[in-house]
Amino acid sequence: MLGLTRSVARYQAIPRDDEPLRAQLKALATCYPRYGYLLLHALLRQEGLVINHKRTYRLYREDGLQIRTRRRKRLVRPRALMALPDRVNQRWSLDFVSDQLASGRRFRVLNIVDDFSRECVGQLVDTSISGRRLARFLDEIAQQRSLPASIVCDNGPELTSKVMFFWARERKVVLALIQPGKPKCVHRELQWQVSGQLPQSALVPEPC
């Protein structure tokens, strides 16, 4: 009478067992408290636990794992000096300098310095350097020498991107993000030693 097939009329939904996925989602949210559901979904997908992001979002909302968006007062922290490395290739520092061509088009130079030997490990010049381009350049360097245990860098968008997060995770490299604000000028001392060797008329360090 209704024009429905017998299989449709008698279908009974089978509930999914979300407990393993829910438990792993909570564990990742505890380990990475500042990550939203998209980054957590990418981690779960790497482990083969989930494919559809809508399922992750449903569990994310049901368990109240949303990031609090209320703005907090900025804390005044004393400048902490980083421990000096005691061997080559233990820690690198990474930073950008920039300038513009006669046509007005801006370009950037990425400097990578070994903090122990003060060696310039690599330089990359381009008009735009994204997180994907940066990860590819670091892999090119890794073909000639081993990667360090940690890389000191600022909180730029290309360095805090999802691409760089998974690149560092897969290669077991710690991205030591410095404190936002003026303290990063302290950590740029090594970078400016390299930038100072470039023609002063060619490059202008990015402001702190």
Automatic annotation (TrEMBL):
Q: InterPro entries from the xrefs?
A: HTH-like_dom (IPR025948), Integrase_cat-core (IPR001584), RNaseH-like_sf (IPR012337), RNaseH_sf (IPR036397)
What protein name applies here? Putative transposase
GO MF annotation list: nucleic acid binding
Taxon lineage: Bacteria, Pseudomonadati, Pseudomonadota, Gammaproteobacteria, Oceanospirillales
Under the heading SUPFAM superfamilies, the entry gives:
Ribonuclease H-like (SSF53098)
Matching entries from PANTHER family are given as: BLR2054 PROTEIN (PTHR47515:SF1), LOW CALCIUM RESPONSE LOCUS PROTEIN T (PTHR47515)
Q: Where is each Integrase catalytic domain found?
A: 81-183
Enumerate the Gene Ontology biological process terms.
Answer: DNA integration
